[in-house]
Design a protein that fits this description.
about 270 residues; 4-stranded antiparallel beta sheet; single chain; Rossmann fold; alpha/beta; binds magnesium ion; binds adenosine-5'-diphosphate
Length: about 270
């Protein structure tokens, strides 16, 4: 077998295989086990909603998937290839920062608190990853950024600074910033939790539009109605493990696990 073939020995990835896979992921902080063997797959074009109580490890799982911090053990595979670590080493050896930065471009993340740069306009916030990470020229980056702002309904706010935008608008800029990098998967960490109730809808509408356009999305959320309407699959996370994964109808109308029935009795 050729040494140059990545993951030689594993069967080749095909587009019908999961685009992102998480295998037996473990993570502790100061001796506290936060992820205890998470297994998770997402197919191309699929939308997964992740529900679960606060402190159950949902954000940690997303940060690990986005390569913002390393797992203690387990694998994250993008199109069948291990990411974040050297493919050929066991035990795992973390990739150098430059390689991590390159791989991170392929996994977009939208945070609860938007994380926009306050000193940059909406357009500049969206352009930044293109010019600084991808090396795209200013003019082209600006055109791409404008088309993404258009897509989230904000081309008329391109020159505004974050402080001049509502929370819902800031979050839509953050979505445009993630989208412009053309990621394979988009991760959302409670994207509407920091918003006033009247601004939640405009962000969920943009997300639903992306889902309808075929974007692959993992959405940690408390928005049960959104999960039911938009997700292909709903996952319950608790104490660092996945308790139940099912279609929305099964998940909400016929929960299999006592833990899920208890969770649903609180959210309904
Ligand atoms: P969730 O997103 O489900 O609310 P988190 O992944 O944020 O859960 O957190 C899970 C647990 O891990 C919590 O007990 C939290 O305090 C702890 N934790 C998360 N990140 C860190 C960190 N960087 N350092 C120490 N503890 C952390
Ligand atoms: Mg969280």
């Amino acid at each position: 077998m050729s040494k140059n073939v990545p993951n030689a020995g594993l069967s080749a990835w095909t587009p019908s295989d999961p685009v992102l896979q998480v295998r037996d992921l473990h993570k502790s902080y100061h001796g506290q086990q936060v992820l205890q063997g998470v297994e998770f797959d997402i197919n191309q074009g699929q939308v997964k909603a992740v529900l679960g109580p606060s402190g159950s490890g949902k954000s940690t799982m997303l940060r690990l998937m986005a390569l913002l911090e390393p797992a203690d053990s387990g694998d994250i595979l993008l199109r069948g290839r291990r990411i974040g670590v050297r493919e050929d080493k066991t035990p795992a050896v973390l990739l150098p920062e430059r390689e991590l930065a390159r791989q991170r471009r392929d996994i977009g993340m939208v945070f609860q608190k938007f994380n926009l740069f306050p000193h940059l306009s909406a357009c500049r916030n969206v352009m930044l990853g293109l010019t600084s990470v991808k090396g795209v020229h200013h003019k082209e980056a600006e055109e791409l950024a404008m088309s993404m702002l258009e897509r989230v309904g904000l081309s008329h706010r391109a020159g505004h600074y974050p402080s001049e935008l509502s929370g819902g608008q800031q979050q839509r800029v953050a979505i445009a910033r993630a989208l412009v990098m053309n990621p394979s998967v988009l991760l959302f960490d409670e994207p509407t939790s920091a918003l006033d109730p009247e601004l939640v809808g405009e962000v969920l509408d943009v997300m639903e539009g992306l889902a309808n356009d075929g974007m692959t999305m993992i959405v940690v959320t408390h928005e049960v109605r959104f999960a039911r309407r938009v997700a292909d699959e709903v996952t319950l996370f608790d104490s660092g493990v996945i308790v139940e994964q099912a279609t929305p109808d099964e998940f909400f109308d016929n929960p299999q696990h006592a833990r899920n029935r208890k969770f649903l009795s609180h959210v309904h």
